[in-house]
Structure formats: structure tokens, C-alpha cells
Amino acid sequence: xxxxxxxxxxxxxxxxxxxxxxxxxxxxxxxxxxxxxxxxxxxxxxxxxxxxxxxxxxxxxxxxxxxxxxxxxxxxxxxxxxxxxxxxxxxxxxxxxxxxxxxxxxxxxxxxxxxxxxxxxxxxxxxxxxxxxxxxxxxxxxxxxxxxxxxxxxxxxxxxxxxxxxxxxxxxxxxxxxxxxxxxxxxxxxxxxxxxxxxxxxxxxxxxxxxxxxxxxxxxxxxxxxxxxxxxxxxxxxxxxxxxxxxxxxxxxxxxxxxxxxxxxxxxxxxxxxxxx
Length: 277
What we know:
Rossmann fold; 10 helices
């Protein structure tokens, strides 16, 4: 998309604000709300998980990062793009009464709904903060674990986002995030479609570039914990591609994938090349 970072953020706020205030849940990273098509292939079933609260589940994810995040009792967990609290409440079941969960979201309506949900549940160790992932409202070295579910692809400056994740994690802490990445190029009309950006597709980058950003931010022990191929139905693609372009896209075998990635902030942090400072 030929849009500035602020324009992209405004688009995401508008689309996800609409999702938060609608009466029935949408599906799959906003594509249902954007395109008017029922499309649930991104989202996974949370209903079997301890802590699951259906009022907080808008089916906006592309994985279940809490299943891979190695969350322990007493941990402080931060959820980036926390929506109405779905992953936060599952994480709370893992950290227990002695831990803490902080959800961060930049959409006012999502934060409002999340706070209503946590008030109903009566949890005193779950809180939601309005803020930007590129500049989190959190002090450095705060979190044992950071999770995120189909959100970082929506952040215009992914380098800054992972630098912030690095800053906020404690030394030795780690993240597990589910996200959408690409293998191959999307057609120009898909890249430039606002709906497909808000739908988590055209904001995705190449998987190799995604992993390089993580490594360049200083993380170690990078591991793809799960990968799932996403096939967008033709009835959605036809909104943006001609029959000829759609056929070319299918023949190109461009891969759209959901991945869950783990990485760790080193326990021993050096400054100016001297680890004794």
C-alpha cells in the first residue's frame, strides 16, 4: 500500500473499532468484516483451553501462541494487540494468582471491551493499556513472556516493534507470536487493497525478512514452533483480481502462511562489547 504509517494505523483502528463494537463476532483477522465473506481459516479453536472466555473471542487470531509460549506460574506476560482479552485470559490461567498479564492495544473500543470483560471476571492481575506496539506504555525489562496473535503484520514499522519487544522483555525472557508471513510476492492489487491490509494479508512480509528482523533486534534461539498454510478462497480474491490475474496468482504458488515463532532475549547483556560493565 502506498500509505504512510499514520494512515495505516488509522485504517487499522477504524476497522478493528468496527469489529469491537459489532454485535456478532467477525472471523479471521477482520476479513469477514472487510469483505463481507465468512472466512475462518486463520483462526484456531480456543474453546478447550483453561481460561477461555467466549465474550473475549472475536476469532481474530491465526494461531494460539499461549500453547507454545512456555508460560509459568508467577510470570509477567504481555499480549500485544490484545483485542478484547482472549489470549490474556488464557495466559492468566497459566500465570495463576501470583502472576500478571498486561494487554496492549491501540484501539479504544477494544480496550473498553477488554476492561468490561475483566471486570466481569473479577481478575485483579489482568490489566489493559491503550498504546502503540512501536512505543509500548511499559518500562524496560518488565516481561518474562510476550505473546501476540496475528497483529505484528499490521504494524508498519516491524523493526521498531521487535526492538520494543526486546526492550520490554527481561534478560532471558522470550516471546512466542503467531503471525502471517509470505513466501513469494502478492499481486499488486492485493498489496494495495486497504481491506486486505486490515485483513492481515497485504501487511505481511516475506518469512525470511521477518526472521531477519527478529535476529537483527538481538534475539537468539529463534524457532518456528508451528506453520500452517493459508489458502484465501477465490470468492475473496475475485474482489481484487481479474480472472487472468487470479489464475496467475494460483500458478505462482505464492505461499501465505501462519507461523508461530519463538525467540529469546539473551540472559547476559553486554554493552560496548564489555560484558562486565
